[in-house]
Amino acid sequence: MMQIALIAHDRKKDEMVNFAIAYEHVLKPHKLYATGTTGTRIMENTSLQVHRFMSGPLGGDQQIGALVAQNEMDLIIFLRDPLMAQPHEPDIIALLRLCDVQGIPVATNVATAELLVKSLERGDFAWRELVHKYKPGIEE
Ligand SMILES: O=C(CO)COP(=O)(O)O
């Protein structure tokens, strides 16, 4: 079971909901996390259970970043709005930076998100089970 974070800026939330509906069967077996509003929207529109953190502008990106820093996230789908300034831009950059620090796959648009989820379905992330095994804090 992988630990997956789903995050979308406001003008990308419909796209995230459609993505979650389309790949519900692939995402279902995994432990899902999201920033506050994104998580609510996904749960309203699918049968997926999502652990919700704070809303992004209130620190949700940083909460997810903390798990990335501890190497406890396996995959991040972060549908960013490239055309609208965000008040918490530093938090967004920090999260993406931590993904690069740990080498965690992160999709920032839905085209890449689809490729990653297809990889997930195919079992390409199975090696991450080894990381989990040696990190007892992570749920199996
Ligand atoms: O702002 C966000 C990510 O940077 C997303 O936060 P919400 O899911 O709470 O809207």
TrEMBL record:
GO biological process, one term: methylglyoxal biosynthetic process
Residues annotated as signal peptide: none
EC primary class: lyase
Gene3D superfamilies registered for this protein in UniProt: Methylglyoxal synthase-like domain (3.40.50.1380)
Pfam families xrefs: MGS
Enzyme Commission number(s) from the entry: 4.2.3.3
HAMAP family given in the database record: Methylglyoxal_synth
Protein known as: Methylglyoxal synthase
Species name: Cohnella lubricantis
